[in-house]
Amino acid sequence: MQKNVKFAVVALLAISGVASPQALACDPPVQKQESVADLAAQVDLPNSQLGYSQNYLHTWVYFPEFTGTDVKTGLEYSFKPERGVANVLVFIASWCVPCQQIIPEVKKLERTYSQIHTKFIYIFSQDTKQDIAGFVADYGLSNGIAADDKILAKYHNPELPSLYLGDRHRCLASRSIATTSKDLTALGQALRYLTAY
Fold this sequence. Notes:
This protein is α/β, with parallel strands linked by helices. The protein has one domain (10-194): Glutaredoxin, CATH 3.40.30. The protein contains six helices and seven strands. The protein has a seven-stranded mixed sheet. α3 runs parallel beside α6. The longest helix has 17 residues, at 97-113. It is globular, with a radius of gyration of 16 Å.
């Protein structure tokens, strides 16, 4: 069956040596910035089936930009993907038990890759600033962005916890909805190749 959006399991090819690490990144032309919601509307699979281990996007869109408040610093935070930096957006909430369960593994990945062209951004959905601040302090997170409706709409109101990976060309590489440990293993493999050059 032909689809408007083609998929290629690039990470598996890279791991097997069939594809180079550069194949994990996009080298547009991308005609315009689109939201993840726009992209999701073009495919036949529901969000829950678009995980790291299943499909890598082969039609490239730029990572959506947003502006929010970093509860840790109290300052406005503007997210604008930089060329040369891989971005991992972690959608969580202080009240979300699965989020609490994956955070130690996510932090381990952040410690490994934050020094090699990778940025982790923790976005809290439907949460209070007081609870976000407590969660950030308890888990020692590097930041904590309070998401408003505009931010959540740009990322299709993801089921928690969710991860979005952007490559070093500022494009959406993959996403994981209702993230599990298996997805984090695949994220680690993807980051290994995205930061290898």
